[in-house]
Write a structure and sequence with these properties.
The chain is of the alpha+beta class and about 190 residues long. Helix content is about 20%, strand content about 30%.
Length: about 190
């Protein structure tokens, strides 16, 4: 069973070994499990390694003119705007997308131990005849127009925006590919 909930496990380190904060041993984890340890830099016994976890690099994410789609629920959109909605199958569910395009190369900033964050890049939304300065702004503007009844028009663009060519892929799946060890150079090898 694939349980999607996120766990926050409080730990403590004793004699260089990780334990639950109450002193119990950590549970066993499936092979290949990824986790994130959040600590103060001052906790490292080798201060010379702090830089390894603070380094940043910017990498290409998608080329200029890449077609994207913002996921919406256009139930309350005008009839005219609904004409611009494209229905797609993700492999597990149907979604409604509003097409837009990045007009310059998309880049991502990678920091060791953190999820990558997109660098602002200009986008054009044909259905709104509007140029904006970032993927986040494109998603917000599309949500405002196509989902006027929504209380908030923000969202996680890595989950709600999809690259539509050559295949339908969420920005999150592209980010995960770039962040793989050996691709980004950001994750240290475990020895």
């Amino acid at each position: 069973m694939n349980d999607p909930r996120e766990l926050h496990i409080p730990i403590v380190i004793k004699d260089g070994i990780f334990f639950l904060r109450n002193g119990e041993a950590l549970p066993d984890f499936r092979e290949g499990t990824e986790a994130e340890l959040r600590i103060a830099a001052s906790s490292l016994t080798e201060p010379s390694r702090i830089g390894q976890f603070l380094s940043e690099s910017t990498k290409p994410f998608l080329p200029a003119h890449s077609p994207l789609g913002a996921e919406v629920k256009p139930d309350d959109a005008s009839v005219e705007l609904k004409k611009h909605v494209v229905n797609c199958f993700t492999g597990s569910r149907y979604i409604s997308l509003v097409p837009f395009v990045v007009t310059e190369e998309m880049k991502i900033t990678l920091t060791a131990g953190k999820k990558g964050r997109l660098v602002d890049c200009k986008c054009f939304i044909p259905s709104l005849n509007l140029e904006v300065n970032s993927i986040n702004e494109a998603y917000t503007r599309i949500s405002q127009a196509f989902e006027p009844a929504r209380r908030s028009h923000t969202g996680n663009v890595f989950a709600k925006v999809f690259s539509t060519q050559p295949t339908l892929r969420s920005l999150d799946s592209i980010r995960r590919e770039i962040e793989k060890p050996g691709v980004s150079g950001q994750k240290p090898e475990l020895t």
